[in-house]
Amino acid sequence: MCEEHRAEATPELAVAHLRARSWPCRPAEARRAVERAVSERCRTTHTTCDAQALSDALLVASELTTNAILHGGGITDFHVDVGGRGVCLSVSDRSAELPVAKEPVDPQGRWRPGGHGWPIVCRLARDVRVTDLPSGGKRITAVVPLS
């Protein structure tokens, strides 16, 4: 499992959080936003997009938004930035609880569905940070390498 970091929100992050934004309501919309951002970056830098790296970023975006919807009270902010370190995804939700991986088997020995999203995010992302938001809730930021 990846290391989890909890940090205090800095004043500039708090200001950015208060700005009106539109963000995806569904994982498919988050994936489209990531695909557009990566494609635009590859087009403007005249580089080829690594299909596997893009797939990893799409999966991380999908898992973070799904977890925010299912366990975090809904998506309250979403941001994607493609830079030198890779694809930086930030998803905010209403819950202050840290994400956890569930055991694949319940106490009675039965296999249970789900619980794989957080380990997938931790495996594919280079850096994962969980930040408390001043207005409540949290922001999870994950950087997925593009090379």
UniProtKB/TrEMBL annotation:
The keyword Kinase applies. GO terms for molecular function: ATP binding. It comes from the Bacteria. Keywords: ATP-binding, Kinase, Nucleotide-binding, Serine/threonine-protein kinase, Transferase. Residues 34-141 form the Histidine kinase/HSP90-like ATPase domain. Signal peptide: none annotated. The keyword ATP-binding applies. Gene3D superfamilies: Histidine kinase-like ATPase, C-terminal domain. CDD domains: HATPase_RsbW-like (cd16936). It holds the Pfam family HATPase_c_2. This is ATP-binding protein.
